[in-house]
Amino acid sequence: MLARVFRSEPSSSIAASARLINTRFFHHRVAHEGTVSKRLPFEGESLRLRRVSHYIKSLDDAIGLFDYMVQSRHLYSAVDFNKLMGVIVRMNRPDVVISLYQKMELLPDNIPIDFYSFNILIKCFCSCRELYFALSTLGKINKLGFQPDVVTFNTLIHGLCLQDRISEALALLDRMGEEGRLHQPNRLTYGAIVNGMCQMGDTDSALDLLRKMEESRIKPHTAIYNSIIDRFCKDGQHGDAQNLFTEMQGKGVFPNVITYSCMIHGYCRYGRWSDAERLLRDMIERQISPNVFTFNTLIYSFVNEGKFSEAQELYEEMLSRGIVPNVVTYSSIINGLCKRDRLDDAKHMFDLMATKGCSPDVVTFTTLIDGCCRAKRVDGGVELLREMSRRGLVPDTFTYNTLIHGFCQLGDLNAAQDLLNEMISHGLRPNIVTHSIMLHGFCVNGKPEMAWKLFKAMQKSNMDLDIRTYNIIIHGMCKANNVDEAWNLFTNLPLSGLEPGVQTYSILISAFAKAGNFSRADYIYMEMLRKGIVPNTVTYTSMVDGLCKQNRLDEAKEMFDSMANNRCSPNEVTFTTLINGYCKAEKVYDGMELACEMYQRGIVVDSITYRTLIDGFFRVGDFNGALDIVEEMISSGLCPDTNTFYSMLVGLCSKEAQKAVALFENLWKSVDHQLEDG
């Protein structure tokens, strides 16, 4: 790293920098008896290097100047070298500073190093996460007769907290209190430890330290309250966050844009929209302007909750306030548009980013790729994947998973496998989600053998398979009519350390009910209840279906009615299943009552329900009732499909051929009109 910077002659700019850096107006030297001037903490005060920085345009310039100063070291003091090191620190190259100080120490005639040099060095070690050397430097300060000041301790404490070494940071805090007035902790000291505790989720200790700070008559600043409030909000402790928010204002510490943004973010995460909007209004009334983070929090949350119109309003408000959207803003809006099946608008927003000087990142690309897959335009997603590579962006596992899932949904398993191979060739390791997507793809596309082979390979690879993976393969085996294998997988779940959930039980109950083995379905259902697992709509629907197939309609109706007791609402499938049971038992009028109940509950009656009722009326010979259902179906905007036509014509032809011909003509006209209108 240093070899390239050794030069025999300095450039004119380096010489000019050297002349500037030798001036004496920057800061005082080390005070008598190894103490330090109070004016010059390393943190928080400019080293006034602007004039030097004017000549130093790059790291090469800085190292060239260092080399020049070393060659003429009798002209320069420790203060002068410190000024140069400060410039390099501002370039965010602490590793270079460490190397240069090490070189200074190795020179045969020592270059003077003062107390400020050690503070700079400690900061650089902490930035490089080399805490052992940072703490060793503290020992060296003491050995050379210097006294570390509050900045030394604060820098070390900050570095320890960044690595979650809170107990050691607290030990340094205690030491500061014991070593005299030069080491007394200040707000920065407490703030670093409080923030570290909050990052680890230890809000109790953070609050205790806040109280200790107040007892020491050090007034906490807004940033300390922000750290604790933010942690409370992330942990869902909104009451504690609100109490601390109120407390800080009562003590004369006023919230800023970060405080409000943390509170708003916490409320949004837990769907408390009215509280979030109330805080936003309060914030604006206090003339605290929301920043891009505040708006991003709200936009992201509204999009995820399906409140896209509100998200769009916030985006427009953001623009009207002159706040420039960033990549997070655009990604959220693109996500919202994709979720509303507005892929073309999403692409327009994507293109708009470039005109505004905002480059899409991996998340933005993946979001739009997901939109393409939702719209079954997976080839467009692949084009975006190639565009990512052209722009130097590396797709991640989630990007590939999105596309693989898209191809599996289209039934193009070969393309999905090709992408999986490409993913591996690029050094990305497929995760449990990747394999589960492929497993599901094989199962739903009629490839149970491939699914079983992949599942066995997953087991042999010692991959941590979760219950969702087992649910996929159990459902796949059931769909392939291999219910016995599904049952074996289910019974062996405890051996894998897994407990079946409601979805697992529901899959098996449905499979055994459809296979005519209702006794096994009923056994699984009772076992589920015994374990305290609450049935869901799918469970109840499967049980209703099994009971109807057994012609146990009264029990099926009891099961249907019991859903309300467990706060589980039947859906259109549940209703249609029971209606079908009634119709096959020639109790079509009971089925009609259920259809009316569907309508009253606001559940949309679909074409399957209508066709079920039509079949039911024909079973009992009520042709007029069947015709009434057809007319109702057409008036509700549903177009009778081929199966409905077939049911009607077969039913009528068996009795009244003329009515069948007339019905066919009328239905054809109705369908023709609907096609013209839509």
UniProtKB/TrEMBL annotation:
SUPFAM superfamilies: HCP-like. Keywords: Repeat. PPR repeats lie at residues 114-148, 149-183, 186-220, 221-255, 256-290, 291-325, 326-360, 361-395, 396-430, 431-465, 466-500, 501-535, 536-570, 571-605, 606-640. PANTHER family: PENTATRICOPEPTIDE REPEAT-CONTAINING PROTEIN 3, MITOCHONDRIAL (PTHR47941). Belongs to the PPR family. P subfamily. This is Pentacotripeptide-repeat region of PRORP domain-containing protein. It comes from Capsella rubella. The lineage of its organism: Eukaryota, Viridiplantae, Streptophyta, Embryophyta, Tracheophyta.
